[in-house]
Amino acid sequence: MESGTAGIGREVAVEVVTTASLAPSIHNTQPWRWRLAAGRLALAPDVGRRLPVLDPDGRQLVVSCGAALLHARLACRVLGLEPEVELLPGSAGRPGPEPALRDDLVLATLDVRGRHAPTDADRLLFSAAGARHTDRRPFADQPLEPVLLEQLRRAAEAEGAWLMPLAHSDQRLGAAVVAARADWAEQTDPAYRAELATWRRADGPAGDGVPTDVAATHHPFRASDFPLRDFDTTGTADAAGTAGGPPPTENPTVIVLGTDADQTEDRLRAGQALARVLLTVTAAGAAASPLGQPVDSDGYRSVIERMLSIAGHIQMILRVGYPRRDAAASTLTPRRPLGEILVID
C-alpha cells in the first residue's frame, strides 16, 4: 500500500471508494461520485439520481452522500491512515445562500495527514460495513439492550448529531399515527408509486435499486405499530409466512436521529452519524431499517418535531431490533461498478 504521507494514491483510492460504495442510500440510488486528483478525493452528488417526488430538495441525497463519506473515513483508518475531511470546501460556515445542489458541487474533500494505527473499534465497524444492509426481517420480541442504545447515542454524537429513542408510549403512539398517515399518503400518490417502480429491480444483474427478493417482505398479516415501506407497486406482494395465523405485533425500538440545523453541512453530518449508528447496530448483531415515510415530507417531519418538542431537525427515524431466528436472512443490495463512481485524474 502506498504511503499516506504523499496524499491518497490510486490503490488506496480504489479501496476507500469501494468501502464508501457500501453505504446506505435512499432506495439504494447510490447518488455519489468521487474524483481523485492531486492526492485528494473529492465527493460530489450525482444529481441525476435524485428522487424528484420523494426528495425534491435533495435532502436525502445529501444524507446518503454523508453516509458514504463516513465509510470512506473508516476505510482510511483501517488502512492505517488518518483522514482529514473538509465539508463544502470554500463555502461551509460562510454567510450567504446555500450552495445549489449540482453535479459539480464538491460536498467534501478527503485527504490524509499521516499514519494512524486503527483501533479495535475501527476494525469492528469496518468489518460490519460488508454485512450491513437494510434488514426488513421481522423482529423478535426482545427489547434492545440499554448498553446498545447508549452506544448508538454516542455514535450519533461523535458525528455532530443527536439521537433520541421514543421511550414513552405517548411518543410512540403519536409518531406511529403520523407514520401511518404519511405511508398512506405515499401509497395513494400515483407519482410516488411511479417513481418507486423505476427503482424496483427485477431478478437479474443490477447495480442499484431495490431487488425483488429484497423488497418482497411486505406481508399483509405482519403486524407492527410502525409500518415498513411497501416496495410492491403492482399489488402482488408475497404473503408467504402467514400460515398458522398472524404473528404477534412487532414493537421495535424506534430511534430518531437529527441535527440542530438543517443546512447542507448539517445533512452531511447527519449522514455520517446515520452510517456510524447503522454500523454499530450491525456490529452488535441487531438489525435496523429506516422508517422513511414520515421524514420524506417536510410537512410530516415538522409535525413529528412539534409533537416530540424537538428544537432541532429530524433527519431519519429507524426501527431497530433483533431479527427473529426463524426469519430467512436478507440478501445484500447490489452496488454500482467502481468505474461509474470513481474518476482518477
UniProtKB/TrEMBL annotation:
Residues 224-253 are annotated as: Disordered. SUPFAM superfamilies: FMN-dependent nitroreductase-like. Signal peptide: none annotated. Residues 131-322 form the Nitroreductase domain. InterPro entries: Nitroreductase, Nitroreductase-like, Nitroreductase/BluB. NCBIfam families: Rv3131_FMN_oxido. This is Nitroreductase family protein. It comes from Parafrankia irregularis.
